[in-house]
Design goal:
The structure is a single chain. This protein is mainly β. The protein is 7% helix and 39% strand.
Amino acid sequence: MKHGMKKRKWMIATLALCALAGASSVQAAQSQLEAQAVKFNVFSNGQAVSMDKEPVVIDGSTYVPLRAIGEALGKQVEWNEWTQSIRLKDQPKVAAVHEWKNPPELTGSIKEGGFSGLLHMPGDPEDVFYTLADRGPNGEFGKDKLRTFPDDTYVPRMYKIKAANGTIEMLETIKLHLPDGRKDVYTGTSDVTGMPNLQEGDEVPYDGTGTKKLGYDPDGLDLEGIAYSPSDDTFWLSDEYRPSILQVKRDGTILGRYVPQGAKDKLLAAGAQTDIYDILPAAYNNRIANRGFEGVTISPDGRYLYTSIQSPMAVPDQKTGEKSRNLRILKMDLSSKTVVGEYLYIAEDASMFRNVKQKDIVISDLSALSQDTVLVDERDKNAGDEAQLKRIYKADFSKATNLLGTADSEQAEALSIEQLKAKGIAPVSKELVVDVAKLGYPHEKLEGLAVVNEHTIAVVNDNDFGVDGYDEQGQLQVNQNPTQMYVITVNEELK
């Protein structure tokens, strides 16, 4: 056993947690013992266990990485940085995978795509969902990454779908439009588009060739999340552009758009025809471009709406925001349509992953379990074997600090975990429900999340309409990345 051993000094407390959290996350022990790193094979049920850390021997006892052994025994292992705790659960299972196999064509070789959000409505069959597409097909042209829109009259839409027997069937397509008698300034009809709203603060839109600038649509939408209000039978959608949230009738009529304070006058001056309510905190005007509201959900009793920013905002500047782990989630009382809460959600630390930047760890969707408990979809930008962070967390707001209207809200992105603790600011708690990357999920975007029943969730990817950028000759490239739904069962009861 001692042959070929390498001697190292290890802090005892650090050793216990290094495979989960890294030395920087653990309080160093006062005493030191000599640890001997050893190389030997570990088997579980006849299969070799792959370990990223060598076992060590301390004082005659052998210690192995907890994550590797736990996962080999069918456990999901979670390290909670905020509470300095480890939780083991039974590994969730993929119950089914369904695919949208024949989406209709939009323009040229581009086909309809999705999905950017997911909703299962109470009372519907377990295989019936509502979802939506975002702003339509778009790409990045040339070294300057000009934002292109090959179909600039694309109408943002919701879908009613059935996911069964390995396929996704389109039951209904619901295009968004203005109320009767109003005309969108870009289309000249009641249909809105997925074009950016304003020259100030939005990306500059180009045509599909990347050579011609296009106009702006103050009523344009980049839809990312969908929720349902049982009190008045309407949908609520989240939009990345301003950011905003919208109330929409079942037939797609836009009833109202809720924006940050100060945005209403700019949209109206540009010709917006939507009824606009500027009730959201003004700080949300400082969202990083195309990083606005991503998720939206409504508590089962219909009382509260939650909506999440995709990334930290440019507060006090974009550089600070891109380095921050602090994402904001707003809470709205739907009976009065007023914002009643703002909370911090701490994203995972990018330094704990390979080839992941902090700015690329984002929230993609929400699904409420109760008034105070929400499932949160957190992901990185990698796909396939490179994907490491595709997780669903249960977030508890009941003991989180409400920052709405406080001085700390004005500097939220700049606060470190140590500063938050020193100020007594508690973020929403996080408990891992399922690590989707561990289940073979192949896609970059874990975009839509819905609770099907007490032990089942469904997730969908956004395939970006198959648009895969441009080649060296400036030709738009279309891939075959499919739109899929993964149905996942968990042993714990979702409540």
